Amino acid sequence: MNLKTSNSMATAQAQMETKWWNGGRSPFNVEYGKLMMWYFLMSDAFTFGAFLISYGTIRFSQNYWPDPNVVFNAFPFAGHANLPLAFVSLMTFILIVSSVTMVLAVHAGHNMDKKGVVKWMIWTIIGGLAFLGCQAWEWTHLITGDHLVLMDGQVKELGTTVSMNPWGPAANVTGHEGHHVSTPGPVAFGGYFFGITGFHGFHVFSGVIINIVMLIMAMNGTFERRGHYLMIEKAGLYWHFVDLVWVFVFLCFYLI
Amino acid sequence: MEHSVQEVTFHHEPGGNEVVKKIIKTTVILSVITVIELGLGLAMYAFPMGEALKLFLKGAIVILSLAKAFYIVGVFMHLGDEIKNLIMTIVVPLMLFIWFIAAFLWDGASWKNLRNTYNGTPAAAPTEQHDSGKH
To answer: How far is CA B95 from the centre of its chain?
Structure first.
């Protein structure tokens, strides 16, 4: 725990002096909702973990798996330029930045700064929507982007779907105008990609909805009347978790 | 209840500048790690290299991602500021992942080896094509 500042060293000292388990107080010194949010996130981590590990198992069982640098090399309005990982890097930075604006909203809440909370929540929501927009573009590009595939002795134009993977090993024929032709790759690729990024995207979507509700409540002064902004903290935990999951989705689908 | 116990785990700094500085520092760390990861990922694509080196780079990327997770959970989610017992109830169950990942990836690799050896894949077992096909 080298992240602890001198501030929490003082906390540690206070913890030793306080008998947390003597009753009459919350032994974890957090509000019920926040503790339950942590346990929910832990179980959600196992759900995502199970999906990603299942993907890993199938990938380890294949002799061939598509190279992400080849699959994810497109950028909006860049035509057929070969820009491996550029777009997904943009998505990653959008999510990191929206996570930062969320921390700043939580921080503003600690200071009972209503204007700050509203401002940073708006930026967080914009970040979430931008991420979802990017994901919609990426999915559309993958599904509709046709690639030449040698299937049943014929060269066909196919996109990436849950039942078709055009990113297999090279076929020993050449398409018209010398275009690259592949054989079909492992069919699990599309299912796992759309399934897991879709499940993550669903979390981003529900996070945006939660953040919008929090924004409206903050603007109405609900938290000000309540005397604390703990709801912003709980929404923040969920939002950071979405960013945390993306770290691993990014790792498993795009980097390695 | 809320007011009968003094809030101990979170201290409000009057200006809060220290907190903002920590947030900015963490943001920079996360961005730099991401750039390094992308650099390694692109290096695997741009330069021809052996499988061993590739595996080493992939391992490095995994470790860097774990560092990112540590910073997000510790700083952004303030888990580092909670009481130790609370941290343990979150972190200890997650240890299950060590077995979970090792066992299933091992299983996947074993599946591949078994198929390559016994399922009549021409490159791996050309002589066994006839008597050990699909049953």
So the answer is: 13
A89 touches chain B (CB under 8 A): yes
Chain B residue whose CA is closest to A59: B108
Q: Which residue of A has its CA nearest to B41?
A: A255
As for the ipTM of the complex, it is 0.84
Residues B58, B17, single domain; the answer is yes
Q: For A162-205, what is each residue's pLDDT tens digit? A: 998 999 888 888 777 777 888 999 999 999 999 999 999 999 99
| Total domains in the fold of chain B | 2
Instruction: Please check whether residue B90 lies inside any domain of the structure.
Output: no
For residue B100 the two structure tokens come to: 């979970």
**B113, B63: one domain:** no
Structural domains of chain A, with CATH: 30-144+187-255 (1.20.120.80)
pTM, two decimal places: 0.85
Biggest CA–CA distance in chain A, Å, is 79
pLDDT per residue over B34-87, tens digit each?
A: 999 999 999 988 888 888 999 999 999 999 999 999 999 999 998 888 889 899
Q: Does A237 reach chain B within 8 Å, measured CB to CB?
A: yes
B72 Cβ contact partners less than 8 Å away, ≥ 6 residues apart? A99, A240, A243, A244, A247, B30
Which tokens sit at B109? Answer: 């690799």
Cβ–Cβ gap B20/A14 under 8 Å: no
Q: Sort out which chain B residues have CB atoms less than 8 A from A14's CB and list them.
A: 8
Convert A19-47 to b/e letters by CB count within 10 Å (16 or more is b).
eeeeeebeebbbbeebbebbeebeebbee
